[in-house]
Amino acid sequence: MSFLGSTKKASDFTVSDILTMDSKDSIINSLSSIDPVQIPEGYIRPPASVAKVWKVFSPQPLTQEQLQDMFITWDSLSETRWLAYPIYRPPQRKTPPFILHNRLYYLNAVEWAASAMEMSAISARNVALLAHHRWHQQEGKVDQEDLHTRLRGEL
To answer: Where does the Prenylcysteine lyase domain start and stop, copy by copy (predicted)?
Structure first.
């Protein structure tokens, strides 16, 4: 049986991406083979038995023994420490308000809960809408109860 629990021969194993959930038993978060950036017409992903580049994300650096369990052989190994899977916890204190004062907004109030470029982009959009609606005295468009449901499909 293989590292991933498959009984198939490596030549029959064509899966290229393995993603895991928060599992205390798993030593990896993801495992994937690298395909060409420009995929030519008619490209067929080679089976796992063919030499290729694999990318592994793991919460801790992998030991030689763990790598040997995962791969039969390898030509080279490159390790880069990367915070690709942040661990989110509820903020230790109350998040700051978006509205600090009349016409003064705190764009990154949500960063206390989760920090990412995407969160900043969403915050910027939300604050721009908030400022616009308040500038034009459209208070009915601020804090709408069904706004989240309507915007979910938009974002």
So the answer is: 3-144
Mean pLDDT of 27-46: 83
Residues 21 and 76 in one domain: yes
Is the entire prediction scored with pTM above 0.85? no
Single out the residue in 51, 85, 119 at which a domain terminates. Answer: 85
Please, are residues 48 and 78 in contact by the beta-carbon 8 Å criterion?
Answer: no
Structure tokens at 33: 């083979």
Lowest average pLDDT, out of 30-34, 47-51, 122-126, goes to 47-51
103 and 68 part of one domain: no
Which domain covers residue 64, as residue numbers? 1-85
Which tokens sit at 149? 């449901």
